[in-house]
Amino acid sequence: MKRFLILWCAGLMFASCTDLDLEDQTIKLIELPGYVAFANTGGTITPIERTVAETSTAVQNLRIEVATGTLSDVTVTYSFSGNAAFGTDFTVTTPGGTATAAGGTIVIKRNQTPAGTTDFDFVNLGIHAVADGVDDGDKSLTITLESAANADGKTFAVGRGAPGSTIYLKSARVIFTDVD
């Protein structure tokens, strides 16, 4: 009888439980939009600006990341501006993408971050200085992220920040110092 009473009480308590979900507690969940942005050292949102001598052989890797995640590869479209000329003052490495004088595309592979890290999905856009042997002064290059979409057709915002406010890390600048 004692066991029956314990089971009956346990059943009564279980039956009296209500389904308390987040809406019942006036907590609303909203889906944050996915975004693609340049990544800065230490996670800061300060503008990215690098200075490199035109004779440097060091690659300027500009990290582009999908901080919000994705279910498939993301293709990012970017543009070039400034007075540095593609092919004359700089070249680029675009894993899975293309590059022209106006800009190009680069692909961020899902779950294949470089060097086996477990960080956000990202890819490095490699900027290579080209020594032109001409005394033509310093040159600047601004790379601006224009759009991003994954293979499933989902679009991503570019840069960090809410629409209508300042958008951070949508562009990066490289200055090539003339050594001639």
Short description:
The chain is mainly beta and 180 residues long.
Summarize the structure in words.
The protein is mainly beta and 180 residues long. It has one domain (35-177): Immunoglobulin-like. 8% of the residues lie in helices and 38% in strands. It has one helix at residues 2-16; strands at residues 35-38, 48-53, 60-66, 74-81, 90-93, 98-99, 103-108, 121-129, 139-150, 155-158, 171-177. Strands 1, 2, 3, 4, 5, 6, 7, 8, 9, 10 and 11 form an eleven-stranded mixed beta sheet that branches. The longest helix is centred in the first third of the chain and has 15 residues, at 2-16.
Number of strand segments: 11
In the predicted model, the low-confidence regions spanning at least 5 consecutive residues are: none
Q: Which homologous superfamily in CATH is the superfamily?
A: CalX-beta domain
What's the CATH architecture name? Sandwich
CATH topology: Immunoglobulin-like
| CATH class designation | Mainly Beta
Keywords:
single chain, about 180 residues, 1 helix, Immunoglobulin-like, mainly beta, eleven-stranded mixed beta sheet
Blueprint of the fold:
Blueprint lengths: L1 H15 L18 E4 L9 E6 L6 E7 L7 E8 L8 E4 L4 E2 L3 E6 L12 E9 L9 E12 L4 E4 L12 E7 L3
Parallel strand pairs: 1-10, 2-11
Antiparallel strand pairs: 1-3, 3-8, 4-7, 4-9, 5-8, 6-7, 9-10, 9-11
